[in-house]
Amino acid sequence: MNTMLEIKELCVDFNDKNILRGVNLTIQAGEVHAIMGPNGSGKSTLVNLLAGRAGYQVTAGQVLFQGEDLLPMQPEERAKAGIFLGFQYPVEIPGISNALFMKTALNAQRRHQHLAEMEAMDFRSHTRKMAKSLGLEDGLLLRPVNVGFSGGEKKRNELFQMMILQPCLAILDEIDSGLDIDALVTVASGINALRTPQRSILMVTHYQRLLNDVVPDRVHVMMDGRIVLTGSKDLAMELEEKGYGWLAGAGQ
Amino acid sequence: MNTEPNPYETEWIARQNSLPGEAIPWMRRLRQEAMERYRASGFPTTRLEDWKYTSLKPILQKGFHFPEPSCIGLDPSDLDALLIDRRDMPRLVFVNGTLSRPLSNWQQLPQGVEIASLATRLAEYPEQVEPCLRARPTTPDHGFAELNRALWRDGAFVCFRQETRMPIPVQLLFLSLPSSVPVITQPHTVILVEAGAEGQIIESYATLGDCDHFTNGLTTIFLQHGARLNHLLVQNESHAAYHLATMRVQQESASRFVSQAFSFGGRLTRQDIHLQLGGEEAECDLDGLFVATGRQHTDFHTWIRHDASHTTSRQHYKGILDGHGRGVFNGAVLVPQSVRETQSAQVNNNLLLTNTAEIDTKPQLEIFSNAVQCTHGATVGNLDPVALFYLRSRGVDQEEARRLLIKAFAGEILDRIQPQSVRAWLENRLAF
Predict the structure, then answer these.
(1) Is the peptide bond before B167 cis (omega within 30 degrees of 0)?
(2) Which of A42, A185, B86, B160 lies 20 to 30 angstroms, CA to CA, from B142?
(3) Does residue B252 sit in the same domain as residue B395?
């Protein structure tokens, strides 16, 4: 089995505050992991750091992606190497159509892979089915990125981007927040459709509901900047019942 | 007292008897009067409020010469990138201020559309152009505009006769070429849209090569009752050029003027748009984009007078400032006390791409009437770092992500341009 991601004793500061305090996490190719935990425990910091967002300071530890040191890489290099972050709050970009955005991203990746760039027409036929499988209207492609999209449309648009870019490691930050039950089912089946023996998925979620539909191989609990407990999918169930209080002080 | 002669006084003395219309008494008088007003005011200095941020000293220190009428061989292919569609669009091309007949095309104009060199028109049909040339602006012109009125040699004359509908744009291209000494050209253009007529104009200024030169342009536009005009202005001269331009628009009742102005070129440029809504139900819709990179300095001033009730003005200007680029925007809206039920909206958004770029933006509302609706807003910002990260997190390189976001900012203005062929042409002229 190949190791997709290896995080060792990672410590990270943000705005001069210790947020991550020694995170250890290993994800094998093909595995789905979920991270749960109370607000402010460092989950979003971890996923943003993995995608290369600016402003975080790594004070100790190491992150290996497919055996390579991830931390010196620029965000776009990480994306082209196969890392994808599904944003908790997808960004609105007036003036750039969804189609142009994704065509530019796909072609950046294709250039990186020494493949011919895709023309607008080919791109449209290539992506039409993907959009349809997520219940995204065709017109949404021509609208400015996320502008005027409903909460559900924004999240489905993140998955749509993931389908186009076919990453090796998909990191989904609260992809289920703000979704009604129907949208949640659509999103979950979209994620399941993207599960392959080669692709790893790391999901941050507050709710056990998503994990009923996308069954994880591992569930981690993050508290106070550390992963304090790791278990099977049943752990999510237990957390749903008991909350996080009983774990206070764990992993110290 | 300043005893130094005004710049270009010697040219006036040398040339006043050889300028177009010199044999027509009223024309001679108009030039004489303009020269006197120019002498009285000279070039504006930074001591004037409207010129606080823009110094014309470099133009005065440089000393530009009047071009000799030349017959420089220009290959039509040189114009490929400068013209929108070479085949069927009517156009006038001026080279260093002189009309080039081989490069122009005014064949097959629809009935009721007249385009000509202003100098020729003045010679052939003085009675047609007289009211336009005589029209006195409601607010004083800057000294350099008076200099243009005194010393202009040519420019375009376009007339859309009553009830004419012109389906395709008329292009006016003012092209400057390198010459042994830096030259000044003073194009003087008159556009007359008669009652109920409808037309489109593309007025563009360009340089072949990197030479420095000085364009001192004046365009006067008249819209009679119910007339409609779409006017696209593109200033894309070399980054060594100096460009001062005045556009004066007089609108009668129920007329509609749409202006889109793009200023990308020039070392030091100033565009003034003076617009008078002189009749009820007249409306204007002005937008534009100015870009200053490197050490460019671009100044945009608009002046809108609501001189009649039930008039509407809308303005949306955007600025992109990069490198050490410097931008100035001043939007004046004037509503006299007697005027009722007018609407005016003004927005100016600016994007600063570096710490060394600068913008000074100021709305200037002079509203003396209570029964009006006036809004204004100005913003200055940088590229959104979150949007930049979002694009990069999908694999788009930083440079390309920046370009996309800049294009998106400009897109709000560019996307309004019709037809598509014109928009595509302009987008290609933009070096983002």
Answers:
(1) no
(2) B160
(3) no
Whether B386 has its CB under 8 Å from any CB of chain A: the answer is yes
Are B256 and B396 part of one and the same domain? no
% of chain A beyond a pLDDT of 70: 98
* Residue A83's CATH number: 3.40.50.300
Among residues B277, B312, B347, the one where a domain terminates is: B277
Greatest CA separation found in chain A? 57
How does residue B146 score in pLDDT terms, banded at 50, 70 and 90? very high
pLDDT tens sequence across B63-100: 899 987 665 667 778 788 788 765 678 999 999 999 99
Interface predicted TM-score of the whole assembly (ipTM), two decimals: 0.96
Q: Is residue A228 part of a domain?
A: yes
**Number of domains chain B is built from:** 2
User: What residues of chain B lie within 8 A of the CB of A85, using their CB?
Assistant: 393
Per-residue pLDDT tens digits for B13-26: 999 999 999 999 99
B188 assigned to some structural domain: yes
What is the structure's pLDDT at B69? 66
Token digits of residue B394 = 């999908």
Nearest chain A residue to B413, by CA: A95
How many Cβ pairs closer than 8 A exist between chain A and B?
80
Q: What is the DSSP letter of A118?
A: P
Angstrom distance (rounded) from CA A122 to CA A112:
19
B386 contacts in chain A (CB < 8 Å) = 91
Last residue of a domain, one of B277, B303, B327: B277
Distances (CA, A) of B137 to A43, A242, B142, B265: 66, 80, 11, 28
pLDDT in tens, B299-317: 999 999 999 999 999 999 9
Mutation site, A93, A106, A117, A164, interface B, largest B CB count within 10 A: A93
- Residue B390's domain comprises 385-432
User: Per the CB < 8 Å rule, is A75 touching B392?
Assistant: yes
In a domain, B401, yes or no: yes
Which among B395, B405, B407 is the nearest to A165, CB-wise? B395
Tell me how far apart the alpha carbons of residues A141 and A127 are, in angstroms, rounded to a whole number: 9
